[in-house]
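Box 3.1. Reading complex inputs
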Amino acid sequence: MAKLKKTSANPRKAPAQDRSRATVDVILDAAARILVKGGYAAFTTNRVAETAGVSVGSLYQYFPNKESLLGELMRRHVEELERGMVAITADAAKRPLAETIRALIEDNVRAHLVDPALHQVLSEEVPRLGPLDWRIAYGSRAAMRVRAALETRRSELAVGDLDLAVYLVTGAVESAIHDAVADRPDDLRSGALTEELTRMIVGYLTGKPLSARRSLRAAAE
Amino acid sequence: MAKLKKTSANPRKAPAQDRSRATVDVILDAAARILVKGGYAAFTTNRVAETAGVSVGSLYQYFPNKESLLGELMRRHVEELERGMVAITADAAKRPLAETIRALIEDNVRAHLVDPALHQVLSEEVPRLGPLDWRIAYGSRAAMRVRAALETRRSELAVGDLDLAVYLVTGAVESAIHDAVADRPDDLRSGALTEELTRMIVGYLTGKPLSARRSLRAAAE
DNA sequence: CGTGAATGCGAGCTATTGCTCATGTTATAC
DNA sequence: GTATAACATGAGCAATAGCTCGCATTCACG
């Protein structure tokens, strides 16, 4: 294996014509398919090019190195993940806390059910890409949004250190849902996991058990 | 890179003399050091042998392939992780639920503070080793133990699906602590995270907020 | 058209890896 | 002391890997 030698920080050419934009897409599609099918071990630039039906040369015309391929794949994924969250946290001040939290969890579940296999490989098997890694960037941005949302309802909260609480809560939700994609897909789809998670989080944050949950759910719809 | 060709399921020789037992240890030590220092990318059999001060030949006398090196490293780590948990869950019937849960969390924190760097590389960067992977095996055994412990106090629980609850709770604890090793080491060491986690979990499981927590902690000591 | 730029090609270079094997050295058994 | 098994060595093989570069093809546009 030639050691990824940081090929002189090469910002490769951006596609200008339609033909090349299609090439870029076809390459990324192939990359995703390979990751899903064979994991990171199968992810070689030669194989990606072959699967995409283009030559390695073309691949390296738009991606300076193998790492950047992963980077772009991750970027696109995060974009999708963040869309919903922004909308929900923006409305936090107008709605009851429990409702916002349930909405966030539901949205997270929904996002994780889109191409779950790729999502999983990307976050479990792909080596860390340094401090610019999407997981870190996404995680901290998500935490900031949730923190801001919770702050609009500070009086309802029964936690001391809000930062710590946000850290705990976002981490728990993210990881529970993420793991459940592989381990408990039925509970994910049925909403059972959403239900329990919501109960756990709301109870923790407000200090009061969320018992009238059925009615709350009805009210939210 | 020669593709790990499952070298004919070779069970290598086990060390018989003291000299060779020392060799095995020195190899595993070097392997751990390399993983911690350079991550999985730096983990090559040649480098491990060199760092250990032995030849590759000697390495392959005791480990059939690179994978098995990781396997042994993981096995030793899990052994350490499980020791405390077994003791605590065994006593679950005799103690209040909240106390058992706090003890489990505290023990998990303690375990994660032993060689945290190695623990992290092992669980984040090392490729999955198939269905025999330690993470899966360990996770499901841990879940079984916790489930059995909770069952001895079923009447205090306010959850419907105990399996789901155990899944949620063990996952949340494990991942929160794991992430906190990297993100919030101070909260981990100060006990703040233990405190909040315990509150969250006990509240969720019993349906009652754990408010008199200070006194509970005092009683546990 | 024709010309330069954009795009595409793929053989093959260089580096490195996992692992073997022929050979040497040390311990144990008798 | 000698034979046998355990242990150790390290040059080097086979297999890839990431990536380059000289050249071919296609496009935009006058």
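In summary: The interface with chain A takes residues 1, 39-41, 124-125, 127-128, 158-159, 161, 164-165, 167-168, 171-172, 175-176, 179-180, 183-184, 187, 192-193, 196-197, 199-200, 203-204, 207-209, 211 of chain B (CB under 8 Å).
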